[in-house]
Amino acid sequence: MVPENLNLVPFVSVENMMDLVLEIGIDTFLRELAEFIEEDFRRWERFDKTARIASHSADGVIELMPTSDGRLYGFKYVNGHPKNTRSGRQTVTAFGVLADVDNGYPVLLAEMTILTALRTAATSAVAARYLARRESATMALIGNGAQSEFQARAFAALTGVRALRLYDTDPSASRRCRRNLADVGLDIRICSTAEEAVEGADVITTATADKQYATILTDNMVGPGVHINAVGGDCPGKTELHRDILLRSDIFVEYSPQTRVEGEIQQLAPDHPVTEIWRVFTGVAPGRSSESQITLFDSVGFATEDFSALRYVRSKLSGTGHYTELDMLADPDEPRDLYGMLLRREAQRREPVEA
Ligand SMILES: NC(=O)c1ccc[n+]([C@@H]2O[C@H](COP(=O)([O-])OP(=O)(O)OC[C@H]3O[C@@H](n4cnc5c(N)ncnc54)[C@H](O)[C@@H]3O)[C@@H](O)[C@H]2O)c1
């Protein structure tokens, strides 16, 4: 039996994604999403893995991020344009597709700008659970743009972080971030320098956007025992940490062939030892092994995280009404009569409109 309505694909718009997230609750959404992300990292061997396909230009990058676990296939389209905020646009926007591997038909199309912020933050927090000191309570958050509140929410929901130290070169960004987080129950202080923000911090999250080798953190700013969650350096020629910090850190990455090109470790020799985070999640490799160790999660974002996010959203959709059905796939009555479908449409268009 051929199912009806093969032309229709569930589509989650920005408005529907926001309603879904709010209905589930931001904290619950982050926690459940984190479980899906960790679960998929634990099935690492099952995934078809490729470094994302990037098209670079003077002001940014457009990337495609595909992966498959053999049953579902997913990809995300995402851009990164640090100058965009000056023209009222987001630095990062995204949408993604999940498809059934058996027949290749898409089963979900979704906005992923909000979903990317949630999945990036959830991934950071899961990694920190294995890499930060257990009693970590204070996080410096440097770069207070679109990602920042999501990072704060994920650390508050998934780790013991209860205090935030904010710093941004644009003080209005820090003020917005503090205002938006007013009801979350975090102790928040705006700092006037990055040095002040990292003073006494257990975790340092960097989420700045600049298309250059930036030095958001210098070596003297990172003391023993700190966990660095480096989110903003995610493109060739776009980093945030001084190289000397990398040399003192134990470095954890998502998929090393991609991170060696895009992450902080592009500053290091191609054979510098790093640990893929799935090895830590599965217990094959240790996470933090001493109180004084500096751990660095050199996050660039990997396709499985988006796959997990789409898989999670799909699992939550039924019965919510937070999607529409898009007439996206041509579905002629007889599969090979695609041209005939066009002819029938032409005939329909010629029919005189009833008065
Ligand atoms: N690792 C991942 O998976 C992942 C996912 C999403 C975004 N990102 C990256 O995270 C970064 C932040 O993204 P966003 O959407 O929040 O960008 P955004 O443009 O909204 O915010 C960036 C903020 O950084 C601030 N900033 C720039 N230079 C700074 C400096 N030297 N010191 C302090 N603050 C500085 C800006 O004023 C701005 O407020 C981008 O580089 C983006 O590409 C990474």
Automatic annotation (TrEMBL):
<dbReference type="Pfam" id="PF02423">
    <property type="entry name" value="OCD_Mu_crystall"/>
</dbReference>
<protein>
    <submittedName>
        <fullName>Ornithine cyclodeaminase</fullName>
    </submittedName>
</protein>
<dbReference type="InterPro" id="IPR036291">
    <property type="entry name" value="NAD(P)-bd_dom_sf"/>
</dbReference>
<comment type="similarity">
    <text>Belongs to the ornithine cyclodeaminase/mu-crystallin family.</text>
</comment>
<dbReference type="InterPro" id="IPR003462">
    <property type="entry name" value="ODC_Mu_crystall"/>
</dbReference>
<keyword id="KW-0520">NAD</keyword>
<dbReference type="InterPro" id="IPR023401">
    <property type="entry name" value="ODC_N"/>
</dbReference>
